[in-house]
C-alpha cells in the first residue's frame, strides 16, 4: 500500500504511522512548575540525540484542548526536567500518569509513586525507576501541526547527572537491561519491553567509530 499523509487516505482501519517507528523508548518526564508543584508524564516521542555531552529530547504535542502540555511548559519556564526510565514493572503507573489532569495535579501522588530528590535540579525522581537523568533545559523547536493536538514542542535538555540503581549493574560493570525490562511503545495500544539482546560491531578497525558505537568519550579521545 502507499499513501501521502494528510493528502491521500491510507485506507486502513487504523492510522499505521506510529506502528512504523517501533519500539520507542518512553521518556517518563518529571518537572515542577513555578509554584513548585510536581508533574510527571510519559512521552514515547523521546530519544537521546547525542552522547558527549549527553543530550535528550522529548516531543510534546498539544493537549486535547489545543494547549501546551504541563511538561513542556514547566521545562521551558523552570529550565529543568528529569527523565525516569519506564519499566515493565512500572507499566500501570506510567499509564496513570498519562491522564490529562489539570495543571498543578501531582501525578506522583495519583500513581502512588514515591519521590526521590535530585542532586542538581529541582524536579523529583521516581524512586522505583532504575535509571534517572537530571536534565537542564536547552531549547524548544516548535513545529506547526493540525489542531487541536498536532502542533508539537520538541524539547531538548542536557543531561547533567545520571543515577543508576546498583542492583542493575552486573559483575562486569554493565547495565543489566534484561533484568530492568525497559518499557517501550509501539503503535495502536501496543507496548513491548526489552527481553532479548545480541551484539554486533562495525566491521574494520576504526577505533573512533567503535568508540562512537559504544558511546565512550574516553575511547573516542584516545582514538583521535
Ligand atoms: C506511553 C505513553 C506515551 C506517550 N507519548 C506522548 C508523546 O510522545 N507526546 C505527547 O505529547 N504525549 C504523549 N503521551 C500523552 C501524555 O502523556 C499525556 O498527554 C499527558 O497528560 C501529558 O501530561 P502533562 O500535561 O502533565 O505534560 C503519551 C502517553 C503514554 C501513555
What does this 3D model show about the protein?
- Helices cover 19% and strands 31% of the residues.
- A hairpin with a 5-residue loop joins strand 2 and strand 3 (38-43).
- It has seven helices and twelve strands.
- The model has no long low-confidence stretch (mean pLDDT 97).
- The chain has helices spanning 17-20, 70-78, 91-96, 107-110, 177-180, 207-214, 217-223; strands at 24-25, 27-32, 38-43, 46-51, 54-61, 80-85, 115-116, 125-126, 131-143, 152-164, 183-185, 191-193.
- The longest helix is centred in the N-terminal third of the chain and has 9 residues, at 70-78.
- The protein folds into two domains: 17-193, Electron Transport, Fmn-binding Protein, Chain A (Pnp Oxidase, Chain A, Roll), CATH 2.30.110; 198-224, no CATH class.
- The chain is an alpha+beta fold.
- A seven-stranded antiparallel β-sheet has the order 3-2-6-9-10-5-4, with helices on one face. It has a three-stranded antiparallel β-sheet with strand order 1-11-12, with no helix packed on it. The chain has a two-stranded antiparallel sheet with strand order 7-8.
